[in-house]
Write a structure and sequence with these properties.
The protein has about 100 residues and is of the alpha+beta class. A four-stranded mixed beta sheet has the order 1-2-3-4, with no helix packed on it. It has a domain of about 50 residues.
Length: about 100
């Protein structure tokens, strides 16, 4: 049975692709990553956290590859850190636009 909380990123692949992208597309910038959703999954925030190694404020775009409505089937999200009153607890919430 598949466990959606289990995932294994290929760090070597990401490092290689990011390095290659920077050499070939020096004028372009990586702004985030995408998922072919159609909705956010439980582990997307964990994966999103990994992209902070490549981009300071990465954007997550969910692309619905089987849309049921006419239009651009995407939703974009970015993380917002909230500092609690005690200033010792931080939480990360996803915001969409």
């Amino acid at each position: 049975m598949k466990d959606p909380s289990m995932w294994f990123p290929d760090h070597n692949y990401h490092e290689s692709m990011f390095s290659t992208f920077k050499r070939i597309n020096a004028k372009e910038h990586v702004v985030g990553w995408y998922n072919t959703g159609p909705t956010l999954q439980e582990n997307d925030l964990d994966i999103h956290g990994l992209f902070h190694d490549y981009v300071p404020n990465p954007v997550l775009v969910i692309i619905d590859v089987q849309p049921k409505e006419i239009g651009i089937p995407t939703k974009a999200y970015y993380a917002v850190e909230e500092v609690k009153e005690s200033a010792t607890q931080k939480s990360q919430n996803g915001s969409s636009s």
